[in-house]
Amino acid sequence: MLSNNKIKYLKSLYRKKNRLQENKIIIEGIRIINEAISKNAEVEHIWINEKNKSNKYLEKLIDTCKLNKISFTFESEIHIKSVSDTKNSQGVLALINIKEQYNSILKQFENRVIILDMISDPGNLGTIIRTCAWFGIDSLILTDNSADIFNPKCVRSGMGAHFYLKHFTYLGYDKIIAYLNSKKFTILRATLNAEKLDKNNFSDSWALILGSEAHGINPKLQIGQEISIPGKGNIESLNVSIACGIILNQLSN
Amino acid sequence: MLSNNKIKYLKSLYRKKNRLQENKIIIEGIRIINEAISKNAEVEHIWINEKNKSNKYLEKLIDTCKLNKISFTFESEIHIKSVSDTKNSQGVLALINIKEQYNSILKQFENRVIILDMISDPGNLGTIIRTCAWFGIDSLILTDNSADIFNPKCVRSGMGAHFYLKHFTYLGYDKIIAYLNSKKFTILRATLNAEKLDKNNFSDSWALILGSEAHGINPKLQIGQEISIPGKGNIESLNVSIACGIILNQLSN
After folding, report:
1. Which CATH superfamily is A106-252 part of?
2. What is the ipTM of this complex?
3. Nearest to B249 among A130, A241, A246 (CB)
4. What are the two backbone dihedrals, phi and then psi, of residue A162, each rounded to the nearest 5 degrees?
5. Among A234, A236, A237, the residue to mutate for chain B (most B Cβ within 10 A)
6. Cα distance between residue B251 and residue A117, in whole Å
7. pLDDT tens-digit profile of B7-44?
8. CATH 3.30.1330.30 domain locations along chain A
């Protein structure tokens, strides 16, 4: 049973400082937990609302837990809700150890890298990670001033895509520039007033830099070639996750 | 000054029933209000937090109000906050009359129409409307069971794009099918396992049907040609607004 101390501990992981210290996160919902298990994330324990025991999706998840020797317990609704960070909890929570999940050794990053500059909205960030997973991109560099990818909102909007990421790191501008200069990537910067992407112009090794909607890309990352998504000029900007999806689709075709 | 009754009235507009009855909405934030004014929305009144008077963007907005003969008043922070629906209010609210803003006469809809089936997340819906504005699409049909486009969250994530929309309506499945059958559109349905879009196959008159991520497109809308966005199979689905952006970009090039 979830003790008060354990509840307190689990809830503490909603704070970035504690996540960083513990290297653990809480994830919620059947789909995200299934993705975590299928990508061999280190699931330490799963707590299930005893009232939902006979939900067929939860039954399937319980079978998966047994098969993968993942420990789980049934808990009272009140305990589950006291840990849950969502309004409409599906009644299932998992504690994940992320220490071994990700590689941050830059030189091992794949040759298709996304660089995000100051993306502060965790929902957008999660959607970007989900879009990367769709297109098979698993290397992500974020500037120091970006949102935490394990922010609960970001994990929710990622819909399990976090567990497809292999390489990610947070870096300052200088280090990003040094990294890019050390590689033979085609470097693309998504901005508002440039030419559209011409795929004939570069190789399959690329880095794509995306900035926030409010601030664009920091001048410190003025490197590589600008590209834009042609619009009808009706509105100031596209959502950054939409821009990411459109460019990745172009790069993948 | 905002009276208690007026505050109550304005707040009542956050409920769909009241919005529908009054044909009025509250919008918040400088950028969205600027978009509304620039697209000649009927702005009934603007309330500005007196503390923010000297913010340069608000000063500019005040000039715009004077130029366009839009009435505005300064209000105490406490009054603005009591009406505001956002955590970090920019201190400016506008009341918009939307009665004359939109056309729902189907036969006048443009020849590039987006049809949304049961999109229930207002944030996604707003991002779709914003993406449509970017690509110059101004006709939108939503199934009856979709979210309200004037839900405050939807308006926020639309970032002012709502005022670029010219034609929109909510319809049942039968009426949508009858409408599509009466037109010579190329009808596209975005699904998960079809061929990718081949632009040589159809004209510039099209309707694009997008379904929710959880439920896909209702079988009652089984019409036209399925198209998909090729992925690497790493994750179950793309966010619907991302799919919308990618397909609109393909259709626009």
Report:
1. SPOUT methyltransferase, trefoil knot domain (3.40.1280.10)
2. 0.92
3. A246
4. -55, -30
5. A234
6. 29
7. 999 999 999 999 999 999 999 999 999 999 999 999 99
8. 4-97
